[in-house]
Design goal:
The chain is mainly beta. 0% of the residues lie in helices and 40% in strands. It has strands spanning 7-11, 15-23, 29-34, 38-39, 50-51, 56-57, 62-63, 68-69, 74-75, 80-81, 86-87, 92-93, 98-99, 104-105. The strands form three sheets. Strands 1-2-3-5-8-11-14 form a seven-stranded mixed sheet, with no helix packed on it. A four-stranded parallel sheet has the order 4-6-9-12, with no helix packed on it. The chain has a three-stranded parallel sheet with strand order 7-10-13, with no helix packed on it.
C-alpha cells in the first residue's frame, strides 16, 4: 500500500498514531489498521474493525464487524474474534481460539 494512504487516526479517542485502511486479500475494503500493527496478509479485517498500534494478527485470523484489537494485543493463527468484541491492550488470543459476539477480553 502506498504512503499516500497513511493518515493519523485517534485510537480509542485518545491515542493518535499513523494508520491506513486495510484491503482484504479478496480486494474488499477493510478496517483501520495502525502502521505499527503486524497483520498477516490472509487475515480478514472488516471495514468497521480497528487494529491498534503494536497489535499482531496471524494467518487466517478473522476479525468481526466493530471489533477492536488493543495496543500490543496478539491474535493467533486462524483465531476468530466475534462482532463487537473488544480485545484489550496486551491480551494474547491463542491459535484457533474463538471469541464470541461482543465479548470483552481485558
Amino acid at each position: 500500500m502506498s504512503a499516500n494512504n497513511i493518515f493519523t487516526h485517534k485510537f480509542g479517542g485518545w491515542l493518535e498514531a499513523p494508520a491506513r485502511r486495510w484491503i482484504n486479500h479478496d480486494g474488499s475494503p477493510g478496517g483501520i489498521v495502525a502502521e505499527t500493527a503486524t497483520v498477516h496478509e490472509a487475515a480478514i479485517i472488516p471495514e468497521t474493525a480497528v487494529v491498534w498500534p503494536g497489535a499482531s494478527i496471524g494467518y487466517g485470523a478473522s476479525i468481526g464487524d466493530g471489533a477492536s484489537i488493543g495496543y500490543r494485543a496478539s491474535i493467533g493463527y486462524r483465531a476468530s474474534i466475534g462482532d463487537g468484541a473488544s480485545i484489550g491492550d496486551g491480551a494474547s488470543i491463542g491459535d484457533g481460539a474463538s471469541i464470541g459476539y461482543r465479548a470483552s477480553i481485558g
